[in-house]
Specification:
It contains 13 helices and five strands. Strand 4, helix 8 and strand 5 form a beta-alpha-beta unit. Bound molecules: adenosine-5'-triphosphate (ATP) and L-tryptophanamide.
Length: about 325
């Protein structure tokens, strides 16, 4: 069975629709056919200064939400990144392989550091993609299901893996990004040319999975739309309507063509109501299941402990091979 690995940061109180359609939905599908490892990347979340109690809560909410969205701890290995110290250990090795210029070219780093300014940008944000490469290669993953914005980080991972293998001998599987065209990028409802993002300046255009139905209905009804009246998919001239069509289609399973036909002659108002209904029907049970899981924290932690142990077994093996290939002297047992 081919191996899959992916991770998601606990940087918000809830995942949003983009996280689900761009990433988590593929995770759920892939656990059926692959040996899948999924982690809540709490170490990556340290690049954003957060109250300790808030980070703790968000990490547990993230894990509960992943299960509520369909990850089955019996079918995949679900764990918390900081439970597996090998991530940091391989991270250092890869930092010694990555070029400064190469890391400087990462667009996510450039965007995020530009927003906060050089003095307030932490070094961890710069090395973030290298820790991500370690997450992936520790598990010898073949596939990495992510949204379009992560393509460059997967390319970097491949480059680092190939460099290591050619210098020190075959050690790492070279992974491939798994990015579905149809939902690779869900945009902000208030700014349909920007991606829906947990760290957006305003939350008004972000559909949070755990929000109450009435909040999301309101957000969808006030989504920015375009000039004209037709409900047609045209990303260039009608980014707002195209985004809503993508969302409806991804959740309802109706093709964009069918939706265009179904809403021909109808107004934006009717269409938005239909989108709101599809979204709220889809997420109501997820919200409830998440709350149930969080109500029994001990049981949730127990599930995660099982995942961490399985992850560590694989990670320790890869790290030992890596250290040995590098010529690091192993301790006498
Ligand atoms: P931030 O904006 O704080 O970086 P984020 O909202 O992009 O956060 P991440 O934790 O970075 O969320 O991403 C988790 C997964 O969701 C990644 O695989 C990412 O590609 C995917 N993803 C995030 N936003 C979108 C989006 N708008 N459309 C499609 N996929 C997305
Ligand atoms: N950088 C990713 C989160 C992430 C990840 C990973 C994704 C950390 N480690 C390993 C896939 C594989 C993000 O911001 N979405």
């Amino acid at each position: 069975m081919k191996r899959v690995l992916s991770g998601i940061q606990p940087t918000a109180e809830s995942f949003h629709l983009g996280n689900y359609l761009g990433a988590v939905r593929q995770w759920v599908e892939l656990q059926k056919t692959h040996d899948a490892f999924y982690c809540v990347v709490d170490l990556h979340a340290l690049t954003v200064e957060t109250e300790p109690a808030v980070l703790r809560r968000r990490t547990l909410v993230a894990a509960a939400q992943l299960i509520a969205l369909g990850l089955d701890p019996d079918k995949c290995t679900l764990f918390i990144q900081s439970h597996v110290p090998e991530h940091n250990q391989l991270g250092w090795v890869l930092e010694c392989l990555a070029g400064f210029g190469e890391a400087s070219r990462m667009t996510q780093f450039k965007d995020k550091s530009q927003k906060s300014g050089a003095d307030r940008t932490v070094v961890g944000l710069f090395t973030y993609p290298i820790l991500q490469a370690a997450d992936i290669m520790l598990y010898q993953a073949n596939l990495v299901p992510v949204g379009e914005d992560q393509r460059q980080h997967i390319e970097l991972t491949r480059d680092l893996g190939q460099r290591f293998n050619s210098r020190y001998g075959q050690t790492f599987v070279i992974p491939e990004a798994y990015i579905l065209k149809s939902a690779a990028k869900i945009n902000d409802l208030q700014d349909p040319t920007a991606k829906m993002s947990k760290s957006a300046a305003s939350n008004a255009g972000v559909i949070d999975i755990l929000d109450a139905a009435d909040i999301n209905v309101k957000k969808i009804k006030s989504a920015v739309t375009d000039t004209g009246k037709e409900i047609v998919f045209d990303e260039k001239n009608k980014p707002g309507i195209s985004n809503l069509l993508s969302i409806h289609s991804a959740l309802s399973g109706n093709s964009i063509k069918d939706l265009e036909n179904q809403f021909a002659g109808k107004g934006y108002g009717d269409f938005k109501s239909a989108v709101a209904e599809v979204v709220t029907d889809f997420f109501a049970p997820v919200r409830q299941k998440t709350q149930e899981l969080l109500a029994d924290e001990a049981a949730l932690l127990q599930l995660l402990a099982v995942g961490s142990q399985k992850a560590r077994d694989v990670a320790a093996k890869t790290l030992a091979q890596t250290y040995s290939a590098l010529g690091l002297v192993p301790p006498k047992l």
